[in-house]
Records
---
Amino acid sequence: CTGRVYGFRPRADRGVGKQRSFRFGTRYLISIGQDNSRRIYLVTERGPRHKGKGSLGAVYRLVPRRKEIGG
């Protein structure tokens, strides 16, 4: 496992869109989920290190970065 997260945009009329790599990665990814509001979550087996010690696990929510519209 590389720790990189990839995605694509499905298109009903043209098939699968271009595969893209997100600008972040996470180690020890064990699950991906979605809540009723369609927000995406990643669950890791090990969390970030704090004061030199690793935590037991972490849950991350993906938040889309919106492009600004010039005006």
---
Amino acid sequence: LTLSGRRNSIGELKDQDIYMRVDLINLPAGEHLMKISDRNIDLPRGIKIDGIVPQNIKVNLKALGPDQISK
């Protein structure tokens, strides 16, 4: 990510302050290429995204067996 904002806001930014969300609902097991945009990323107020590289991430989903599903 390339970010911009006030110098003190950027300087105080920690890894745990950045959240990325991807919707995996209804995706079957297997490999998927997910596009990342600024809509997928949550940042603290006052910080904005100037660039995202890479713009795609690879996600590999595996089906769980019946004995692996928690209730």
---
Amino acid sequence: SGTHDAGAGTITWSGLSVVVGTPVTLSYTAVVPEPVAGVVYENTAEVTESDQYDPEPDNNQDDASLTPLQA
């Protein structure tokens, strides 16, 4: 399950079981303020801890930017 920390702007997921070689999708819904010119929203996902050896730790982070459209 996920825990939201509004002060840090993070969601922490725990209690997950991931089978080697099997992708996992984690989803959440966010409500953001009305778009303002020049504002870009950034979403970053990162694996920060694991109880298993990770042979490829360089691929444990990704991010995406979104510039909302104004009506």
